[in-house]
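Sample entry as discussed:
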Amino acid sequence: MSNTADKRRDSRSGGNGAMIALVTVLIAVVLIVFFVMIFVIMKNKGKDAPAGEAAAEQTQRREVVSEDVRVVLDEDSGQAMMEQMREEVAEGMFECQMSMDWTFDDGKAESRDAYVGNSTNNTHPICFDVIMDGTEEVIYSSPVLPVGAELTNFKLDKELPAGDYQATVMYKLLTDAESQEEISSAGFVVNIKVLN
Protein backbone atom coordinates (compact mmCIF):
# COMPACT_ATOMS: atom_id res chain seq x y z
CA MET A 1 0.00 0.00 0.00
CA SER A 2 1.20 3.54 -0.76
CA ASN A 3 2.58 5.69 1.95
CA THR A 4 0.17 8.44 0.87
CA ALA A 5 -2.01 7.73 3.89
CA ASP A 6 0.98 8.39 6.16
CA LYS A 7 1.56 11.77 4.58
CA ARG A 8 -2.02 12.98 4.93
CA ARG A 9 -2.39 15.68 7.46
CA ASP A 10 -5.52 17.38 8.64
CA SER A 11 -5.24 21.10 8.77
CA ARG A 12 -7.94 23.51 9.82
CA SER A 13 -8.41 26.92 8.31
CA GLY A 14 -8.04 28.15 11.83
CA GLY A 15 -4.76 30.04 11.23
CA ASN A 16 -5.53 33.41 9.68
CA GLY A 17 -9.20 32.63 9.10
CA ALA A 18 -9.86 31.78 12.74
CA MET A 19 -7.93 34.84 13.90
CA ILE A 20 -10.01 37.09 11.62
CA ALA A 21 -13.21 35.43 12.85
CA LEU A 22 -12.14 35.87 16.48
CA VAL A 23 -11.26 39.53 15.96
CA THR A 24 -14.61 40.08 14.21
CA VAL A 25 -16.51 38.52 17.11
CA LEU A 26 -14.53 40.56 19.66
CA ILE A 27 -15.20 43.79 17.79
CA ALA A 28 -18.91 42.95 17.66
CA VAL A 29 -18.98 42.26 21.40
CA VAL A 30 -17.21 45.55 22.14
CA LEU A 31 -19.70 47.42 19.95
CA ILE A 32 -22.66 45.76 21.67
CA VAL A 33 -21.30 46.64 25.11
CA PHE A 34 -20.63 50.22 23.94
CA PHE A 35 -24.18 50.67 22.64
CA VAL A 36 -25.69 49.18 25.78
CA MET A 37 -23.56 51.50 27.96
CA ILE A 38 -24.60 54.55 25.91
CA PHE A 39 -28.24 53.49 26.20
CA VAL A 40 -28.00 53.10 30.01
CA ILE A 41 -26.12 56.40 30.44
CA MET A 42 -28.63 58.29 28.31
CA LYS A 43 -31.54 56.70 30.16
CA ASN A 44 -30.08 57.56 33.59
CA LYS A 45 -29.10 61.07 32.50
CA GLY A 46 -32.73 61.86 31.74
CA LYS A 47 -33.79 60.73 35.25
CA ASP A 48 -31.31 63.02 37.03
CA ALA A 49 -32.16 66.19 35.05
CA PRO A 50 -34.97 68.52 36.09
CA ALA A 51 -38.31 67.96 34.35
CA GLY A 52 -37.89 70.84 31.87
CA GLU A 53 -34.38 69.77 30.85
CA ALA A 54 -35.44 66.14 30.53
CA ALA A 55 -38.31 67.07 28.21
CA ALA A 56 -36.02 69.25 26.06
CA GLU A 57 -33.42 66.48 25.92
CA GLN A 58 -36.12 63.94 24.97
CA THR A 59 -37.22 66.17 22.08
CA GLN A 60 -33.61 66.65 21.00
CA ARG A 61 -33.01 62.87 21.07
CA ARG A 62 -36.09 62.27 18.90
CA GLU A 63 -34.75 64.74 16.34
CA VAL A 64 -31.35 63.03 16.28
CA VAL A 65 -32.92 59.59 15.91
CA SER A 66 -35.05 60.82 13.05
CA GLU A 67 -31.93 62.14 11.26
CA ASP A 68 -29.98 58.88 11.35
CA VAL A 69 -30.84 55.32 12.27
CA ARG A 70 -29.52 54.06 15.60
CA VAL A 71 -29.70 50.55 16.93
CA VAL A 72 -30.44 50.02 20.60
CA LEU A 73 -29.83 46.49 21.76
CA ASP A 74 -31.57 44.91 24.68
CA GLU A 75 -30.60 41.54 26.13
CA ASP A 76 -32.74 39.53 23.71
CA SER A 77 -31.71 41.36 20.54
CA GLY A 78 -28.05 41.31 21.67
CA GLN A 79 -28.19 37.54 22.12
CA ALA A 80 -29.88 37.14 18.73
CA MET A 81 -27.16 39.21 17.08
CA MET A 82 -24.41 37.18 18.77
CA GLU A 83 -26.04 33.91 17.64
CA GLN A 84 -26.24 35.19 14.06
CA MET A 85 -22.55 36.14 14.17
CA ARG A 86 -21.61 32.68 15.54
CA GLU A 87 -23.50 31.05 12.66
CA GLU A 88 -21.71 33.25 10.12
CA VAL A 89 -18.31 32.37 11.62
CA ALA A 90 -19.18 28.64 11.64
CA GLU A 91 -20.37 28.93 8.03
CA GLY A 92 -16.92 30.15 6.95
CA MET A 93 -14.90 27.45 8.75
CA PHE A 94 -13.79 24.30 6.96
CA GLU A 95 -11.40 21.38 7.37
CA CYS A 96 -8.62 20.68 4.87
CA GLN A 97 -7.06 17.27 4.24
CA MET A 98 -3.87 17.11 2.23
CA SER A 99 -0.36 15.77 1.87
CA MET A 100 2.32 18.41 2.29
CA ASP A 101 5.06 16.93 0.03
CA TRP A 102 4.30 16.35 -3.66
CA THR A 103 6.74 14.44 -5.89
CA PHE A 104 6.65 14.45 -9.71
CA ASP A 105 8.90 12.23 -11.88
CA ASP A 106 9.11 15.08 -14.39
CA GLY A 107 7.27 18.30 -15.22
CA LYS A 108 4.62 16.50 -17.30
CA ALA A 109 3.98 13.54 -14.98
CA GLU A 110 1.27 12.96 -12.42
CA SER A 111 2.40 13.27 -8.84
CA ARG A 112 3.31 10.12 -6.95
CA ASP A 113 1.90 11.33 -3.64
CA ALA A 114 -0.18 14.52 -4.03
CA TYR A 115 -3.44 14.29 -2.13
CA VAL A 116 -6.17 16.84 -1.37
CA GLY A 117 -9.56 15.96 0.07
CA ASN A 118 -12.74 17.77 1.05
CA SER A 119 -13.43 16.39 4.50
CA THR A 120 -16.78 14.78 5.25
CA ASN A 121 -16.89 17.17 8.24
CA ASN A 122 -17.38 20.08 5.82
CA THR A 123 -20.77 21.22 4.57
CA HIS A 124 -19.73 22.91 1.31
CA PRO A 125 -17.67 22.11 -1.79
CA ILE A 126 -14.12 23.42 -2.12
CA CYS A 127 -11.66 24.15 -4.90
CA PHE A 128 -8.04 25.25 -4.76
CA ASP A 129 -5.23 26.91 -6.69
CA VAL A 130 -1.55 26.06 -6.31
CA ILE A 131 0.43 29.31 -6.35
CA MET A 132 4.24 29.41 -6.66
CA ASP A 133 5.88 31.24 -3.78
CA GLY A 134 7.86 34.21 -5.01
CA THR A 135 6.29 34.51 -8.47
CA GLU A 136 2.60 34.20 -7.46
CA GLU A 137 2.05 32.18 -10.65
CA VAL A 138 -0.87 29.73 -10.54
CA ILE A 139 0.53 26.34 -11.58
CA TYR A 140 -2.61 24.30 -10.90
CA SER A 141 -6.34 24.99 -10.54
CA SER A 142 -8.48 22.17 -9.23
CA PRO A 143 -11.98 21.19 -10.20
CA VAL A 144 -14.69 21.71 -7.58
CA LEU A 145 -14.51 18.96 -4.95
CA PRO A 146 -17.84 18.07 -3.34
CA VAL A 147 -17.91 17.12 0.35
CA GLY A 148 -16.12 13.78 0.78
CA ALA A 149 -14.34 13.93 -2.60
CA GLU A 150 -10.58 13.35 -2.97
CA LEU A 151 -8.08 14.36 -5.62
CA THR A 152 -4.89 12.29 -5.89
CA ASN A 153 -1.83 12.09 -8.12
CA PHE A 154 -2.77 14.92 -10.46
CA LYS A 155 -0.62 16.74 -13.05
CA LEU A 156 0.24 20.40 -12.70
CA ASP A 157 -1.18 22.81 -15.30
CA LYS A 158 2.30 24.30 -15.81
CA GLU A 159 5.36 22.19 -16.60
CA LEU A 160 8.13 22.79 -14.07
CA PRO A 161 11.82 22.02 -14.64
CA ALA A 162 13.58 19.64 -12.24
CA GLY A 163 14.04 21.11 -8.80
CA ASP A 164 12.53 21.76 -5.40
CA TYR A 165 9.78 24.36 -5.03
CA GLN A 166 7.53 25.80 -2.38
CA ALA A 167 3.99 26.71 -3.26
CA THR A 168 0.81 27.74 -1.46
CA VAL A 169 -2.36 25.73 -1.84
CA MET A 170 -5.10 28.38 -1.61
CA TYR A 171 -8.41 26.74 -0.71
CA LYS A 172 -11.77 28.37 -1.38
CA LEU A 173 -14.91 27.27 0.45
CA LEU A 174 -17.81 27.64 -2.00
CA THR A 175 -21.53 28.13 -1.46
CA ASP A 176 -22.25 25.50 -4.12
CA ALA A 177 -20.67 23.93 -7.22
CA GLU A 178 -22.81 25.90 -9.68
CA SER A 179 -22.37 29.51 -8.54
CA GLN A 180 -18.92 28.92 -7.01
CA GLU A 181 -19.42 31.96 -4.78
CA GLU A 182 -16.59 32.08 -2.23
CA ILE A 183 -17.49 31.91 1.47
CA SER A 184 -13.95 31.91 2.85
CA SER A 185 -10.42 30.87 1.98
CA ALA A 186 -7.23 29.56 3.58
CA GLY A 187 -3.72 28.82 2.34
CA PHE A 188 -1.21 26.09 3.23
CA VAL A 189 2.39 25.64 2.08
CA VAL A 190 3.40 22.50 0.17
CA ASN A 191 6.82 21.28 -0.98
CA ILE A 192 7.01 20.27 -4.64
CA LYS A 193 9.84 18.10 -5.96
CA VAL A 194 10.28 17.56 -9.70
CA LEU A 195 12.86 14.81 -10.25
CA ASN A 196 13.72 15.11 -13.98
About this structure: Residues 139 and 184 are 21 Å apart (CA to CA). Residues 17-91 form one domain. Confidence is low (pLDDT under 50) at residues 1-14, 61-69.
